[in-house]
Design goal:
By secondary structure, this protein is α/β, with parallel strands linked by helices. It is built from 19 helices and 17 strands. The chain folds into 3 domains: about 150 residues, Rossmann fold (3-Layer(aba) Sandwich), CATH 3.40.50; about 240 residues, TIM Barrel (Alpha-Beta Barrel); about 100 residues.
C-alpha cells in the first residue's frame, strides 16, 4: 500500500514543518511512504499528473489558508481519474467548519482535524489492518452512507512523545523552523485555536540537544514557531543561556515572546549575547486596556513597555514590534495612540502595522456581528470594515502600513526619522500619515523600496515640516542624517550616483 504525504508550498512555513512531523510518525509503518512538496508556481495539471504517475493508494494533502483552493482543484482531478484513491486532508484550515468543507469538496474522503500526528497514525493503522473502525478515531471526519461524520477532537499531542522532526528528514536551507512548545499561553480572540489548546513544552534538555544539531548545521537563522516562547521565564532563561554559551557566531535565533514576561535577570543575560544572535518578535497589538480585554489579553501594558525599553537599551537583541489595526473598540485615533506609544519604545526599531484577519477558529470570527466585522470570504480573511473603523479608515491604515514597512521595516532611516520627530514635535503616526499622503499624491508609490528615492521622498516631505523654523540649519542637518542612513543601506557606488543626481526627483 503506497502513501503520499504532500502539500503545495506557500508563505505558511508551518505547513512544511507539520509534514515532517507526520512523516516521522508513519515512516516506520508497513506502508510504502513518500513525502513530497510541490512549488507554489507549479501548475495544477503538473501536480495532478505527477501524483497519478506515482500510483498511490492513499494521498494526504496538508492544507492551509493559502493553498486550499489549489489543493482542492488537484484533488478533484485525482478522484475523477482514479476514484479508488483514498484522499485525506489535514491542517488547521480544515479543522474548523469541517462538515461545510467536506460538503463543498465531495472529492475529499477523510479529514484529519486538529493536531494530526496521532489521528493520522490511527487512521492508517485502521485502514492497513482492514478494521475501518473510524467512529473510534477522535479527530477524524469521514463519509459513510452518504453522510458526513465529524468526530470530536483528539486529546492534544504530548510533544515529548513525538520524534525530532529532522531525524528522518534532514534540515536544509538557510532558514530552519522549529517548535519547542504547542498550545496557547494566551487564548487570544484573534488567533485560531482548537478547544483544548493547553501548553505542552518539550523538556529543556531535549530542546538543548536539538538546538545542538542546528548549531552544528550552521544555518543563517532558526525560527521558533512557539506562540509565546517565554511563557515560562525560567525555562526560556536556560535556553537563552545555552545559546549564548554555545554561540557558533553564525546562526540567528528568532522567537515570539511576551514582553510582559521578560524580567531583569533575563535582560541582564541577554546583554551579554552576541549582537545578531537573537531576534525577538513582540506583538503589542494595542496599548488600549479596553481593546486588550476584548481580545483576551490581560497584559500589563506599562510593564511590557518598561521591559521592552530596558531590552532595547542593552542593544544586543533585535526587537520587531507590531500593532494590529481593526481590533474591537479601536478607532483610527485610538489606533494612532497605540502606534505612537509602541514607536516610542525604540525609535528606529522595526515596527509593523498588522491588519486584523479573522482566521477560521478565531473567537473574533464567531463574534463578527458583535463588533460589526465584515471580512473577505477567501483567505487571508482580511477585515474590511468594523463598527469602529470604516472601509476608508482600514484602507488608509493599510496604506500607511506599507510606508511604515518601507521606511522602518529594517530600521533603514533610524537616524533621520527620530531627528524629524525631535525637531518638529510631530507625532509618529502623523509623520507617517503625512508622508503617505505626500507619496501617493505625487505618484511616488512605485519608488518605495528604492533607498535613494525614499531618501528624496523623506527630504521633500520634511521640508514643509521645517518651514517657519528660525534655525534653518536644522533642516540642513536633516540632509546629513538622511545621507548617513542611506550610506548604511546602499553601496559606495550608489552613494556617488545619488550625490551626482542630487535631491530632486526626475520628471
Amino acid at each position: 500500500m503506497k502513501l503520499l504525504l504532500t502539500t503545495i508550498k506557500t508563505d505558511c512555513n508551518y505547513t512544511d514543518y507539520a509534514m515532517r512531523y507526520l512523516y516521522s510518525v508513519v515512516d516506520e509503518s508497513p506502508l510504502d511512504v513518500e513525502m513530497k512538496t510541490y512549488g507554489r508556481h507549479e501548475l495544477d495539471g503538473y501536480i495532478y499528473e505527477d501524483i497519478i504517475k506515482g500510483q498511490y493508494n492513499i494521498v494526504y494533502f496538508h492544507i492551509n489558508a493559502f493553498n486550499e483552493r489549489q489543493v482542492c482543484n488537484v484533488i478533484e482531478m485525482i478522484k475523477k481519474a482514479v476514484p479508488s484513491t483514498a484522499v485525506v486532508v489535514g491542517g488547521m484550515q480544515v479543522s474548523f467548519d469541517t462538515s461545510k468543507f467536506m460538503r463543498a469538496n465531495p472529492w475529499v474522503d477523510y479529514v484529519i482535524r486538529g493536531e494530526g500526528e496521532s489521528v493520522l497514525f490511527s487512521f492508517l493503522k485502521s485502514v492497513y489492518e482492514y478494521e475501518f473502525d473510524f467512529e473510534k478515531i477522535p479527530g477524524l471526519a469521514y463519509r459513510t452512507d452518504d453522510q458526513i461524520i465529524v468526530n470530536s477532537y483528539d486529546d492534544p499531542v504530548e510533544l515529548d512523545d513525538l520524534p525530532f522532526p529532522y531525524e528522518k528528514t534532514d534540515a536544509d536551507g538557510s532558514v530552519i523552523y522549529y517548535e519547542s512548545m504547542r498550545g496557547n499561553a494566551e487564548r487570544l480572540a484573534y488567533k485560531a485555536q482548537i478547544p483544548d489548546s493547553r501548553v505542552r513544552a518539550l523538556d529543556v534538555e531535549r530542546v538543548i540537544r536539538e538546538l545542538r544539531y542546528f548549531l552544528v548545521k550552521e544555518p543563517e537563522r532558526v525560527v521558533f514557531f512557539d506562540s509565546c516562547f517565554n511563557f515560562n521565564s525560567e525555562r526560556a532563561f536556560k535556553i537563552f543561556e545555552y545559546l549564548i554559551n554555545n554561540d557558533n557566531n553564525i546562526t540567528t535565533f528568532e522567537f515570539n515572546i511576551s514582553g510582559e514576561n521578560l524580567d531583569d535577570e533575563t535582560i541582564r543575560l541577554l546583554s551579554g549575547a552576541r549582537k545578531g544572535l537573537f531576534v525577538f518578535n513582540v506583538d503589542v497589538a494595542s496599548t488600549n486596556a479596553e481593546v486588550l480585554a476584548a481580545v483576551g489579553r490581560k497584559e500589563n501594558i506599562y510593564q511590557l513597555m518598561y521591559n521592552i525599553t530596558k531590552l532595547l537599551q542593552c542593544r544586543k537583541v533585535r526587537v520587531n514590534l507590531s500593532v494590529t489595526a481593526g481590533l474591537p473598540y479601536e478607532t483610527e485615533d485610538l489606533f494612532a495612540r497605540s502606534f505612537n506609544k509602541t514607536f516610542g519604545l525604540g525609535e528606529g526599531s522595526p515596527l509593523k502595522i498588522k491588519m486584523l484577519r479573522l482566521a477560521k477558529g478565531a473567537q473574533l470570527r464567531a463574534d463578527a456581528d458583535k463588533y460589526g466585522y465584515l471580512y473577505t470570504s477567501a483567505a487571508p480573511y482580511d477585515v474590511i470594515v468594523t463598527d469602529f473603523m470604516s472601509a476608508e479608515d482600514m484602507i488608509r491604515v493599510r496604506t500607511i502600513g506599507r510606508v511604515v514597512d518601507a521606511f522602518i521595516g529594517e530600521g533603514n532611516f533610524k537616524e533621520s526619522l527620530p531627528k524629524i520627530l525631535t525637531d518638529t514635535g510631530i507625532k509618529p503616526y502623523d509623520l507617517f500619515s503625512g508622508l503617505t499622503d505626500y507619496i501617493y499624491t505625487h505618484g511616488l508609490a512605485g519608488k518605495l523600496g528604492k533607498p535613494d528615492e525614499m531618501a528624496r521622498m523623506l527630504s521633500a516631505y520634511a521640508r514643509d515640516l521645517y518651514v517657519g523654523f528660525e534655525d534653518e540649519s536644522k533642516f540642513d542637518s536633516l540632509a546629513d542624517a538622511i545621507h548617513t542612513d542611506l550610506a548604511e543601506t546602499v553601496s559606495e557606488d550608489e552613494i556617488i550616483r545619488f550625490e551626482s543626481k542630487g535631491w530632486e526627483f526626475e520628471n
